[in-house]
Amino acid sequence: MLTRIDHVMICVPNLKQGIEAYTRIGFGIQPGGDHTSGGTHNAIAFFKDDYLELLAVREGQQPQAGAALLEFLAKGGGLRYVALQSDDLAADVAAMRTRGVDVSDPEEGGRRTPAGQELRWRSARLGPGTPLPIFFIQHLSPLAVRRRGHTGEHPNGVLGTERVYIGVTDVAKAAESYARVLGMPVPRVQRGNLIKADMAVFDLGETGLTVAQPAEPGPAAEALARRGPGPFQVLYKTRSMDAAAKWMADHGMPPPARGIRNTGEQAMLVEPKDACGVYVGLFSAPAKP
Q1: What is the pLDDT, as a whole number, of residue 262?
Q2: Same domain flag for 137 and 252
Q3: Quick one: three-class SS letters along the chain?
Q4: Is the domain of 142 the same as that of 162?
Q5: Where does residue 92 fall: left (phi above 0), alpha (psi -120 to 50 degrees), or beta otherwise?
Q6: Do 141 and 164 have their domain in common?
Q7: What is the pTM of this model?
Q8: 177 and 240 within one domain
Q9: Contact between 219 and 195 (Cβ < 8 Å)
Q10: pLDDT tens digits, residue range 73-130?
Q11: Rounded to whole angstroms, how far apart are CA atoms 191 and 198?
C-alpha cells in the first residue's frame, strides 16, 4: 500500500546554488551523489522518515528524462514531482491498473553516495493516460542505511513533511483523478487560509497530498499563473518558528510572511524567489498549557 509522502523532488539549474538557498532557509542539506542512470545528481535533507531532494543535471550530461527536464529547468526549475512511498510496489501497480490507471511496471533505480554507498529502489511512473505529477517508490535499502551521514537535525527545527500542495484549475475534478490513482475516497473540500485556495487533502500516513484550486489572490493563484498546474508548496512542521526565523534573518533572508492555518497553528511562508521556485511553509503547533 501507499504509506506516506516519501520525498519531494525540487529540480534546480545549479545544484551548488540550490544547496546554498536551502541552507539559508535552515535545512541541513548535503550532497547526495550521482544517480546510476539519468545523468543527474542530487542533494538531500533527511528528516525522520522522509526527505527533501534537490536534483540537477550533471555538467556535460544528457538526462534520461531528456527534453522535458531540460525545458523545466530552462524555466527556472522548481517542485516537479512528489514521490509516494509504497511497501509493495508491484501490488500497488497491479491495483492501479484494475482502476484504469496508466502506470509503468516497477523499474530498478539507484545512486552512489559521496561516501561510496550504493542505494537501491524500485519506482513506477504514471503514463500519458494519467498525467499527474506524482510517482511511486519502494526502497530496497533500509532506512538506517539511507540516513547514514544525516543527523536529521536542521537549524530551522524542521521535523518532517506535513503536506505537499498541487495547484489545479478544478479541485473537484482533480480530487476524483487522484482518488482513482491512490485508491482512496474523494476528500471533502476545505478552505486553505494561507494559500487562499479550496483544497482536498489525501491523508497518507502522517502526511497529506493536497490538490488546491485558487479561491482568491494568494500563493496558489500566483503559482498557477506563473507555472501552470502542478506542485508548488511543501509544508513542514518545525520545533520552533522563532529559531527558524532567526536563522533566516541571520543568513540575509527577508522575513517570511506569517499567518494562521485553518487548523489553528501559526505558520510562515518562504517565497519562491528564495526557495528555487517553491513556496516553503513552516508551522508549529500551539504550546500546550
Answers
A1: 82
A2: no
A3: CEEEEEEEEEECCCHHHHHHHHHHHCCCCEEEEEECCCCEEEEEEECCCCEEEEEEECCCCCCCCCHHHHHHHHCCCEEEEEEEEECCHHHHHHHHHHCCCCECCCEEEEEECCCCCEEEEEEEEECCCCCCCEEEEEECCCHHHHCCCCCCCCCCCEEEEEEEEEECCCHHHHHHHHHHHHCCCCCCEEEECCCCEEEEEEEECCEEEEEEEECCCCHHHHHHHHHCCEEEEEEEEECCHHHHHHHHHHCCCCCCEEEECCCCCEEEEECHHHCCCCEEEEEECCCCC
A4: no
A5: alpha
A6: no
A7: 0.94
A8: yes
A9: yes
A10: 888 899 999 999 999 999 999 999 999 999 999 999 998 888 888 999 999 999 999 9
A11: 5
Within a domain: 50: yes
Confidence of residue 15 (pLDDT cuts 50, 70, 90): very high
